[in-house]
Specification:
Shape: globular
Distance between the termini: 46 Å
CATH class: Alpha Beta
Helix content: 25-40%
Structural class: alpha+beta
Strand content: 15-25%
Strand order of the largest sheet: 1-2-3
Radius of gyration: 15 Å
Oligomer: single chain
Number of strands: 3
CATH architecture: 2-Layer Sandwich
Length: 110
Amino acid sequence: MSQESDFNQILQLETNIVQVLKSIYDPEIPVNIYDLGLIYDINIDNDKKAEIVMTLTAPNCPIADQILLEVKERVASVEGITESEVKLVFDPPWDQNMMTDEAKLELGML
């Protein structure tokens, strides 16, 4: 495959991952984790392994394990992805400014 073809394939995988992430909701907030700004980075290597770098709204989130497992499993289920890993970080700390305008609108903040 050409470099351009590889690039386009990675770009399509990333788009598909974003769609999957937009289907995962924090049970306490009626907005998906992507629009909440909890996803900091999506990395896909040449072997089609995906690494999701994300945070939570609070370090002591009682359902953190559930959300992380759901992200890992759903991303791994994206066609073309061979493996997924979730890296949880708290730097920079999440704040409301990281939400998309759609999320802010949905929560009545705009």
